[in-house]
Specification:
The complex is a heterotrimer of chains A (167), B (105) and C (596). With 167 residues, chain A is mainly alpha-helical. Chain A contains six helices and no strands. Chain C is an all-alpha fold and 596 residues long. Chain C contains 25 helices and two strands. Chain C has a two-stranded antiparallel ribbon with strand order 1-2. The longest helix of chain C is centred in the C-terminal third of the chain and has 48 residues. The chains are: A mainly alpha (167), B mainly alpha (105), C mainly alpha (596). Chains in contact: A-B, A-C, B-C.
Chain lengths: 167, 105, 596
Amino acid sequence: MPAALFWTFASFMLFFGVMVIIHRSPVSSALSLVVCFLGLAALYISLDAFFLGVIQILVYAGAVMVLFLFIIMLLDLKAEQRRRFNLIAMFGGVIVIVLFVKVLLDVCYGFQSGNAVFPALHSAGHGDTWEVGMALFQQYKLPLQMIGALVVVATVGAVLLSKRELK
Amino acid sequence: MATLNDYLLVSGLLFTIGFAGVLLRRNILIIFMALELMLNAANLSLVGFSRFHVRAGLPDYNAQVLVFFIITVAAAEVAVGLAVIVALFRAKQTTHIEDLNSLKF
Amino acid sequence: MNSAPWIILFAPLFAAAAIAIATQPFKKVSSYISVAAVAISFVFSLVVFGSPDQDVSVTWIDLGSFQVRFGYMLDSFSKTMLFIVTGVGLLIHVYSLGYMQEDRGRSRYFAGLSLFMFSMLGIVLANNFIMMFIFWELVGVSSYILIGHWFDRPSAADAANKAFIVNRIGDFGFMLGILMVWSASGTVMFDELSSKWTTLGLGAGYTTIAALMIFCGAVGKSAQFPLHVWLPDAMEGPTPVSALIHAATMVAAGVYMLARVFFLFAGSGTALMVVLWIGLITSLLAALMATQQDDIKRILAYSTLSQLGLMVSAIGLGVPVAALFHLFTHAFFKALLFLGAGSVIHSLHNEQNIWQMGGLQKKMPITFWTFLIGTLALAGCPPLAGFWSKDGIVAAAFEFNAASGLVISVINFFTAFYMARLFCVAFLGAPRSEIAGHAHESPPVMAAPLLILAIPSLIAGLPVVSHIFFPEVESSEPSIPAIAVSLAVFVGGTLAGFALYRGKSSDPLDIPLFENRFYIDQFYASLVKWTQDALAGIASFVDRWVIDGGIVRGLGGTTWGFGFALRFLQIGNLQAYAFLFGFGVVLLLYLILFAS
């Protein structure tokens, strides 16, 4: 992908990520997160992962974020009031963030082979959805079943947790 | 052309943004959303590596299968986590993280 | 006649086994079996007496370099001892037929007696240390069984325990001695050792300690100081048992063993000194203690202790033949005295206090005259047996140095004194109690052994007789000063005894120190108690402070402490946890990626 397009979508995504954590209103945060996910999906597609890009939009932006918004509306959250400023905590947090960024930059500069161009693809006729599907159902049969069980358990758990006390 | 290092850098930055959100925000729902940002950053770097390791003309789909699983698990986690937050809200009537401190010594 | 010694040894064993397995309900049959076995042994002992010396062994355990042999050694010592043990044993078996007539445990008694005969004959015949030790222990067991014959009496049960335990202490030293001898010389056979021992080139310290360890066995078995405490208490057993075991034979086993292995002591002057002084101390203490006892059997027991001490001193003076000669004569007159005492006890219905006896001359003539012979023999009246054997020891003592001669003379004085006391109070004068007035003579089965034993008490000391049994006794001129001193102390002691006790109805002398046996028993009891308390205190301390406090509560407390410290990390603030977590991750990343 041309660098210009890449950086456009990347900065798009990063900007709205920052928006998520800056906004005081939870609804604004949630909506910024949705747009962030859109940018992320674009990046996936730029990496020839078409299936994943679509799944990202359908599942994450479409289902998970909608769930978030439901809960925000359910709890009827107002904008967050300013409380007392815990300077020490903020300071500590900023320190950790800075260190993180430093580690990140060191790693990236150290990883020389990452500077190569992506190798070319000679795709067979099937397309990546077919490939991912085949991998899922052949090599990863068991994890797939376990994921299915996990989702059922999560559903049951969610129902149980939201029960009110039986009077 | 965008190289792998660019994708990895972006992924790292997204992760840092998410972590900053966990550390610095005090509303539990926002923290949860920042958590989702972190997960997605990991997904991005996985897909990048998948495209980078090419075998027989095709990208390495194992990483993409893993991303699939991560998305599924994240969805389940969000469901349960939000149920927990709702239960907490019903008990404490607040979403401020500093008020949720009964598990202390 | 190669099988004769084996018959002598095993006939009593077969009797004991037969009684134990088959004939226990049939008391008369058991007693006759036992008597028959001893008679057979006696007959064969006489047969063997004439045959030449021999030493025969059968290999019992053969593991190449380690062999244990089982055999017999016939020389003048063992032939004489065989004669004594089987002869006196036979007489006592016959006596027991009468004495134990109404006892309900008669089968058990005779089985015990037969077992004892087997064990004692084993010691006499043994030709190596291992065999002797095995039979040594067997004799201890037989003694335990017989002392505790009336086991429902707590005093008898305690006395049996005491005998066995005190003996065991001595046997421990004995075993150490055997091991020392064995490891130094590689053999336990007496004949090999006697030729090898001096040529081994061992240091003086080693030979002294080995000899003294072996002596420990004799200290236990022959009741020398400080392990003498069991013998007086052993009088709880029936009187024939006291006569056989604790006067004539078993306690003499220690002296016999010392004479057997005298070559171990010959080289070590220190060991001989120790033996001499222990013998003298035992003898003197026992003689003093005997002057104040009121139980007839106890007086005789202390007398035995005293005479054993004399025998051991003879070993210490370097004249083992004299010791065995005294053992020989002592066996006869001491057995006679005990059987006579048993006769008196039996006719007075188990009264043992001499102050309840008296005036028995007319009523029990046979007992009276045989007891008199025994008393004179013990006190050293010439020409009875005791005079000759004691003279041998006195002469050797004066030859050694004047002090030991003096001590022995003092001991002999007291011996005459207390025997005169006993005779006066128990037999002479008017009857001191109701029951003494109704005394009657014992039945023939008990009186006959008394008469038979009186004969060797009279003549066994005479040179013509002693030469048959002790060809090595040199018939040198007897030393006149020694004889003079011996006569003087005999006359003096007897007259003093008569003067003080004739016609008295209670004891004019009262010396608590002697009467309470120098408080040695109390001392031992407190010693055991003190050791036990100390050990218990230590164990309690370890249990309470080391195990409970240190280990159990220490471990628990440490874990609790760690838990308490870690608790303070749970501050409840989610973001603080996230902060720590992130910080840790960054640190780890740095360490892994950049600092290796």
